[in-house]
Design brief:
By secondary structure, this protein is an alpha+beta fold. Helices cover about 35% and strands about 25% of the residues. Strands 3-4-2-1-14-13 form a six-stranded mixed beta sheet. It is globular.
């Protein structure tokens, strides 16, 4: 009886995993609720893996159902967990890009000690020495010293003056601008940088936020139905924002790097649209699970760095400590 019950659950999870194969192919505007699966695909994969191990240990042929679908998912989505860290020494010239949702530099934290955020970022910048930094949920009132970045583009999408975005650079900016998404603080900014005589365009994206606080009870956030509607609306807005972003990027004649907080996973329609044209630096040179955000202990990779295929990715790192609710990520490119 227990095995029959477990197998029933196994079949349900297998069906959900099979359905998740279609999530990147269906535009949220056509079926927004379906897009919810993009946030659940990784745990669904994990449960299927647990079932595969369970049946294998018992030499039960039902093992092959979960194992087969996991192999197909691995081929379809790409690796879920990448190999060991790249420790190769790089002797050539590189371009290091760091991206981080700084959560207003922990401005409203109750336990915030004066200077702690400033010290954290000083250590981060000293240790990693990125030439370019892309910041989301940026606030102008912070104690962090960015003086080593003489070229800065800081933008707050009107009329939202509290939370904005910033591109910090050690290379001159010869052009800059914003896509200005309507009725939201979320936005995309860009800057053209002159790097060793060549021009590279940097995009810093912060796509529509889901707007759910994982530390607060669902009932206090409107209940399950309102949360579902809110998430569905978010995915539709993300689709609109991605379409506007990709159209803007298509016009740019320079090599492009796109970084930021995309508020969705690698199993989403938005991710599929981007990776049809650009490379995910984590998939090229990352290691481990690469999670950048934890939603009620559920690890999610929602922060990304993408680049033109013509730009070689030499390394990618997910940094493991941050006072923000997001972890910083950094990619190293051949210059």
């Amino acid at each position: 009886m227990t095995r029959k019950f477990l197998f029933g659950i196994n079949i349900l999870v297998l069906v959900l995993l099979l359905l998740s194969f279609f999530v990147p192919l269906v535009a949220p505007v056509k079926f927004p609720v379906f897009s919810l699966l993009s946030l659940l695909t990784l745990p669904i994969i994990g449960v299927n893996a647990a079932f595969a191990v369970y049946w294998l240990v018992r030499w039960d042929p039902r093992f092959f159902l979960s194992a087969t679908l996991l192999i197909l998912a691995h081929i379809y989505f790409g690796p879920f967990v990448l190999g060991g860290k790249n420790n190769k020494e790089v002797s050539e010239k590189t371009l290091d890009v760091l991206s981080h949702n700084v959560h207003l530099f922990d401005k409203y934290a109750a336990d915030l000690e004066k200077g702690s955020i400033a010290q954290e970022y000083k250590l981060l910048i000293d240790r990693k020495a990125p030439e370019i930094i892309c910041l989301q949920e940026y606030t102008g009132t912070h104690p962090v010293d960015f003086d080593r970045y003489p070229y800065q583009y800081i933008y707050f999408n009107p009329p939202f003056k509290l939370m904005g975005q910033a591109i910090m650079s050690q290379y001159p900016m010869i052009n800059r601008g914003s896509l200005n998404f309507q009725n939201t603080a979320n936005n995309v900014i860009y800057a053209d940088l002159l790097v060793d005589g060549d021009t590279i365009r940097i995009y810093n994206a912060h796509l529509q936020s889901i707007g759910i606080n994982p530390t607060e009870k669902f009932v206090n956030q409107g209940g399950a139905e309102k949360i579902k509607n809110r998430i569905s609306t978010t995915f539709v807005k993300q689709q609109e924002q991605i379409e506007a972003l990709l159209s803007h990027m298509a016009i740019a004649k320079y090599p492009k790097i796109l970084a930021g907080d995309f508020n969705n996973t690698a199993f989403s329609y938005a991710y599929d649209q981007i990776t049809a044209q650009y490379e995910d630096a984590f998939q090229k040179q990352g290691h481990g699970l690469g999670a950048t955000y934890h939603f009620n202990r559920l690890p999610l990779r929602i922060d990304f760095i993408f680049s033109d295929p013509s730009i070689d990715v030499l390394d990618f790192e997910t940094l493991e400590e941050s006072r923000s609710d997001h972890l910083p990520i950094m990619a190293r490119f051949r210059r």
